[in-house]
Specification:
It comes from Thioalkalivibrio denitrificans. By secondary structure, the protein is α+β, with helices and mostly antiparallel strands. The protein has two helices and seven strands; from the N terminus they run E-E-E-E-H-E-H-E-E. The strands form two sheets. Strands 3-4-5-7-6 form a five-stranded mixed beta sheet, covered by helices on one side. It has a two-stranded antiparallel ribbon with strand order 1-2.
Amino acid sequence: MWWPFSRRGARKTIHAAISKNDDGSVSIDVRGQTCPGYLLSINQAMDTLDTGTDAVLITTYAPCGDDVKAWCKEKGYTYGGMSEEKDIWRISVTKGRS
């Protein structure tokens, strides 16, 4: 996890670490970010992907499920479900319309 610091104190950025998985899907890691930053980061990352791409969103923000479901509906993406292990949530999403 990377957070830049300024002389005025800690400052979070809107950024997602994107990596390709062996199965052709993409992981979008926004651990440590909270609302609304994590959703803005995910949105920016998904904008760079081709339509039809499967993505796994990785977050540590517990209330993320309902936010991501609503966001998927708004964007025309397919929400594939969510799992949690040791306070890390993984959400499956497929990018829909361009």
